[in-house]
Write the structure tokens for this entry.
Amino acid sequence: MVNYEINYGRGRWHWDTKLLAAYGLIKIKDDVFAKKSDDRVEIYSIVGKKGSRNWYVSAFLNFKTQFTTGYKYSKNSEGLSVRTEFTDFLSPAVLSSGPGFQWKKNDNFSFNLAPATSRVTLVKNRFTANRENYFGVTQGETSRYELGFTGSGYLKFNAAENVTVEQILHLFSNYLDNFKNVDVDYSLNVGLKINKYLDTSIMGQLIYDDNAFAGLQVRELFGLGVNFAF
């Protein structure tokens, strides 16, 4: 996992960009296939000009996709495990942008409200050829446009010595289709530093997006890894 931030400020202006790239595989004994535990690429960038107190006039850009092919797993008529290609790099890819207002206390605590967000979902046509609905994209199409409201929040703090907690929240509601149905993407990352080179990480993610899956998606990971900070 690469979790990198760039924070720039000059005068009344600030520009914050966060890059998150992660990939992981899990192989369970007696399971034919290795399955992905994580696969995502996300860039979130926001620029703001300071108004009164901690408020800024802002504009944001958010891009999300994945690295490699994703599969759906099932059993065939003979009871053998099989997999079917379901996603791929840039399928889907989601690009969101819009003007708004940001409240920012510091680089580790802020939230942004964007009431005129444009969101485009891009997919490859081979995934929509035989599906009526693929991540909200209709059959035979390769993109879907949405206009809606976005709320984003970021909080990072030290819970104890050598324990860092990071929380990221994204909300989106589409004005053009079922406005009350809010998409939710919440991530919790807890880092416990053992020494200069080793750390333990606990990661959790909750996603609700009925265009992708009719229900709440939950992901939890615990890992021991080598840490390099620069």
Summary: The CA atoms of residues 165 and 190 lie 5 Å apart. The first helix runs from residue 125 to 128. The chain has a mean pLDDT of 93. Residues 2-226 form a domain with the Porin fold (CATH 2.40.160).
